[in-house]
Task: structure prediction
Amino acid sequence: MASDLAVLILIPAASHSAASRSKRRGEESSRRLREFLSRQGTQVNCDPSGFKVHVDVKLFSPEDLLVKVSGDFVEVQGKHEEKKKDGSGTMTRQFSRRYRIQGGVDTMVLESAVSPEGILIIFAPMLRWSL
Result:
């Protein structure tokens, strides 16, 4: 999947030494780039119907994936191992992501499935309050 990357560099308003400003700009750029890259292929939404996460997992089979609720987060892990064709070793591909679950979501009925297009779909409805 090809994507265009853009790096945003923020220039602080306060006057400090040029080296200090340059270091902060570099750290901020790196942080923003990491955030941008970590969001690629992922959509998170929480609306009145519930909490939804879509993650591109085309490089993994459903057996390679683990989805679990841990506190206020849903954690997604993927790990795929395969032997090299020449038998010289093993290739491993893995990832781990955490998504904060908004209050009012019924995590006891959280469901996940992989679509035919390789998208992991995680859904949990909002809690229903009875009066």
In short: Confidence is low (pLDDT under 50) at residues 1-16. The domain at 42-125 is CATH 2.60.40.790 (Immunoglobulin-like). The longest helix spans residues 18-39. The helical segments are 18-39.
